[in-house]
Structures are given as C-alpha cells and as structure tokens.
Amino acid sequence: MTCLKPETAQPGASKPGRDFNPFDVMAPRAPGAIPKDMKNGGRVLINNVRPEGVYLPNNNIMTPAMRSPEYVQMSTAAAITLGLMPGTMHRCGCTRCLNLLLTYPEGCRANCAYCGLARHREADRDYADRNFIRVDWPAVPMAEIAARVGADPENSPFHRMCISMITHPKSDEDTFTVLKTWTDHVDPDAIPISILSNPTTMTREDVQRLRDMGSDIFTVALDAATPAIFDRTRGKGVQSPHTWKKYWEILMDARDIFGPQKFGAHIIVGMGETEHEILSLVQELVDLGGHSHMFCFYPEKGSLMDHLPATPRDQWRRVQLARYLIDYAGVRVDQMKFDEEGRVADFGLPTGELDAIIDAGTAFRTSGCPGKEAEDVSACDRPYGDSPPSNIASYPFKPADADLRRIRHQLDMEKPGEEYVEGEEFDYLDADPPAAE
Q1: Angle between helices 227-234 and 244-258 (to 10 degrees)
Q2: What is this structure's pTM?
Q3: Least buried of 11, 28, 302, 349, by fewest C-beta within 10 Å?
Q4: What is the pLDDT of residues 363-386, one digit of tens each?
C-alpha cells in the first residue's frame, strides 16, 4: 500500500478527514436467545395454514406453511414487473432480473449479522414476512412463475433469472427442482440463468450439476472482504455456520466448471474493511477470471447491524469507481495509490481518461450478472436495495446529468461551472420511467 502526501494525490481522491467505516466501529450486536417454541419456524409449523396462490408479506396474519420447491419468494421489483403486485419504482421500470429465493417455514439457518433473513429474527417475524435488501419478498408458486414467463420468453422484460439459495438442509436438492421447473418452460438461451449459491451445504458435484442443467453464471456471496470480517459477521462471531475457507472452495470449483467470466463474488463495501483490502479482493477475482458484484452497506431493519452507519458516499464512490476500472478498464490495483488509512488516493489513470469513464456513468450503476444491454451493465439492477431513492448508492438506471454532478460532488471531482445543486436530480420525479433496455 502506497502512502501519499495530500498535495500529490489525484484530484478527487481521498484527503485527510474524509469519511469511511472503520473496523472497530462496525461490530454487530450479539444475537439474543430465541424462545423454544419460536425456533425453526415453530409457530408456522404448529398452525400449518395451507398456502393458496400468491402470498404478500403481512406480519399481522398467520403465515402459510409455504416451502420450496413448490413455492419461491421474489423481490418486490420482480413481482411488480411480473404483474403480481401493483406499484412503480422511482425513475426506473422496475427490474430486468427475476430474482427467486428459496423459502421454508424454518427459514435460513444461518445468522449473518447484516441480513434481514437471519435466524436470530425467529422471535421477531415469520420467515416469509422478513424484509431482505430493504424490501418484502412475496411468495409465489414456482409453477405459476415458470408458466407466466414461459408463455412468451422472447418478449419478457427479464434479461436474466437468478435462483438464490439459503442455508437449509433441503436447499441444494430443491434448487435442482426449481431449476428444472424453469427450464421445462423457458429456454436458457432466451433468458440466461444465474445461481446465487450457498457454499456451506454444497459439493463440487452440485456445482457441476447446476451447470449441466442450464445455468450459465455461478456466484458466491462472500459479502465480507476479509476473513476477519467474514467470521465476525457470518461465522462463529454470530453463531453462524459459514466459513471463509468453504466459500472459497466452492468459488474455485465454480471457476473450474463455469469458466472465465462466468463466476463471481458479491462483496459489501463499508463493513470495516479498508479500500485497499476490498480492491485487492476485486483484483484477485479478476486475476482468477471472475467478476465482483458490489453492494453498499445499508443497515437492514431487524438485523444485528441495523444500528450501524451506512457506507459514506465518498468511500462508496471511490471503491465503486476503482472496482469498475479493475473489472472493465484494465487498471490494476497496484497501479492505484492509497493513503495511510487505505483510501484510494490515485486511481491509476490520466485525468482525461478517468473523466470519460465517470461521465459515461456505467461505473455507478448496480453491478451484477450481465443482461442483454452490455457486459458491464447488470441485469440484476436491484432497485434501491442498498439505499433510499433520496440518496442513491447503486443506480438502477443510466445516471442523468444531474446524477453525474452529484456523483462528482461525492467524489470531490466537480468540474468548474458544473457544480451539483442539492436535490436537482429530483426534477426527474415526474418523468416517465425509461422503457426496458
């Protein structure tokens, strides 16, 4: 890591006093005790209410006993796009990725500190009523989803479908069944398939089987950028079963089986790592032939980290831009320079080239598996999954001029005569949402 004097730093890079989330601040609360009758979905299983059709999360009624592979949950944006829920999304046409989440009354048996689905919430909400990345996830019969999309996949608004596994004894086998239900109705060439895996319960043979059945991208949610943060937020530190070693074992299996550019890892920025640490991980993934899919930490209501600060926008924008340069512009982390706190002090490109990338705006869009627009534009746009619309972290659409002025303001890289005016991007509130690209 290179330390720079402030006067030698690239314009817009870190400077003394700029904010970031340090390791010692980002410690989760310890999980509390759960009443015996609330464990493992006890209330739902005892009442055993029969599911009927689509279930919209509602913490005031008895949750039906829904389970995969018959039922899956989907994001609010996907449910709106599919016509299962009313509503619109601020400035965007909902989503181009059909995110499907396995579901069971017992819920996820992991206890990740930042996650709304975590096991410690058993005394708070039934599993199907829990929020996840800031929104509700309606539960829908898998056969209905496959039939709806399969009726006209070529004209579907979805560019990609993703099956998200959870930590449950049946998750692996049920993922195969959900995938088979989908491919019986939808040709993977029409709508490609991603797998967001649960490495803790998986084997190399499972990874191979998912590839053989038609999925084309395999991702691992490392989330934490370092082994210490992983253990503190996903492992023994919160009484959870995940280990850094097992996650990397399955990631390496995916590299071998799915091949270059067809595997990747999710990483959350701002959970206590330095910018140098997280960008070194991004570089390692690129060197292996994979990609990073990046999220901005935002405290999820009900999680063990809901009392902690969201990632400051200056930290997020520096990492977001640097990650794009490494993944798509051929810049290496060892070309960049970092200050004594590990913050980016120079992005490793001449100012003119850097300006062109910033002005294109793609670096600040949601990162994830690609859709049909371009390799560096994600189908998985997760509208407002890591921020409120009033202070967008990951743009689920192409940033407009006012957005770019705000981004440059957050990067401290404003152009003379083009300074950001607070709130000007909200002039777009009354505009029609863009058509699906």
Answers
A1: 110
A2: 0.92
A3: 11
A4: 999 999 999 989 999 989 888 888
